[in-house]
Structure formats: structure tokens, C-alpha cells
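tool=predict chain=A
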Amino acid sequence: METASLPISFKSTIAAIRRRSMGSSHEERTATEPREKNIHKVTLHQIETVNENIRLIRLNIPDEQYIEARRPTHTKRLSAVQFCPGQWIDLHIPGLPQAGGFTITSTPDQAKGTRKNGYLELAVQKSPRNPAAAWLWQQSNVVLGSELMVRVGGNFVWPPPNVKVQDIKKVVFVSGGVGINPLMSMLSYLRNQPPHFPISVQFLYASKVPRDGYTYLLFFSRLLSAFNSPPSPDWNLHFYLTGSPTLSPPSALDPSNSAFCAGEDYKILGANQAVHQRRVTHEDLIQALGPVWERHGVVAYVCGPSGMTDEFIKVIGSQEGMEERRVLCEKWW
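tool=predict ok
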């Protein structure tokens, strides 16, 4: 197997990065979480810059990672890389002693490669203190085409453990910053389910506004697309943005479809999408859960910085009608 060597300039900084790195590694933090036994080869095929801090990375799954499964009437091509929406990967990079941890933002269907080779998508935040992230943030021409190894792990998944899917009537997603990564995979999966899968979705996305404006938020366009034509009428999307004194409607959208509400929020292309120039409040969380008598069918997923996640999990879990097994969380460092 061919491997990518580390450029001299990158090698010279690795030791310094390790010394500056604070806290435990991804593998140490996730040592008790489930991992699959097999490790798989992938190729770094595509890099897309979302904003000054985020890159989308596409890892192609090569032909050798597929098997032909024979059925009575046909032969099905299956990917050896299997995962549930919400899981992460250990990313093994040649020359680095420890694997980096990155959440898969694509769906299991996109890894299947029905017509062409499937892929895994990662959203990688710029982080000079993280050796794996720093490697992925090198010049594109240095790393594109590199062969890497991945192992799937994690238990923050859809469908939720210990909850019957047929009992779920509403999913509340709450994300902070790149905590949106596992939730994007879950949402995309739900978006592609058959019409007879009538689950309500409330999506709360908190983030700082990127330098070039909120249309450069990670997954902004993808979220709008999902909520512009949702599979169920009760799908609602709320952005909670900080770090910018003013927010104006994006030029790509018709301003006539946007209406300011009480000098604070405005709607984007309909009543099911809103931008808020503030942080998420406890009242926002409670409202997203819906009335008490309907909460027996509510599942909540929270992912973001540890402080935000701890606070929001406590608020949601303490509400009447909610129970611990239906409130799931994952923290990012």
C-alpha cells in the first residue's frame, strides 16, 4: 500500500504541536466506547473550504472495500465500511502516532457506492494543536490522493439505543458549533426516509457567525434545502447566531420572503426557518420539546461544547414527560 509521507515543513512542527496539545487524545477519550474490529483503507479525494475555520473532507472508499452479495434475483454491491448516522472514525494518518477523531457527516447510503464508489464526509475545524486536523489543513495539493485508514466507532447514533423507532414522534436536535456534525448525518438520513415515516423535527443550531457572514455557516445551504421541502410538515429550523452586530438577508434569497420579528428574528423562505441574533435559551429548548402530553414520543440529541451540552441536557432531562434514555448527548473538545 502506498502511503503519503509528511512534508518536511509539517514534520518540523509536529513535535511542537504535540507539546502544545492540551488534554487527552481522541483515542484516550473514547477508549470505553464501541469500535468495530476492522480497519479500512480510504483515499483523500476532495477538499472544500466552507469558511476560514472549516473544511469539508471527502474520503473515497476504493473498489477493494466492496463485496458482491448475491440475492435470489440480483447481486448487491455492499461497502465494507458500515456505520450508523452519528458515528465517528479513528483516522490513521501515516507518520502520526495517534489516530485523529472525526465525526462522519455523510449518510450510510452515501458510503454504499451503488452506482459509483461511495465516500465518507468529514467537517474538520482548523486546529493547529490537533496533529490530525493540522495535517488535513495543509495545502490541498500536498494531501489530496493520500491513502489513509479508518475505523468506525461511537454510540451517539440514530436510531437511539433502548428506544423503539416506531414510538418516536418528534426529534429535537440541538447543536453548538461543529457539534452539528453528527446531527447533520442523522438529519440527512431522516430526510431520505419514505413518506410514511412521519417524524417531526425541531433543529436548533447555535454558532458564531463566520467572518464572511452567516451564509458561510457549516451546512447552511444543506439545512435550507432539507427544510425547504421537508418530508413532514412539522419540520422547523432555528439558527441562533452570535458574534456579529447585524444580520441581513442573504443576497441569494428574495428579501420579500423575509420578515423581521420584533427587531430580533427574521424568517427565511417561510415560517419553518428563522434566524435569531442571540444565544439559545432554556425557553427555546422547552418550546422545542412541545406540550407535556406529547413528550412520551420525543427524543432529544444535544452535541456541542461541554459546558453548553451539560447545561442543555440538564434542562431537557428535567422537563416533565422526558426521561433519561430519550435524552442523548455527545461533547466535542
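The chain has nine helices and 16 strands. The radius of gyration is 21 Å.
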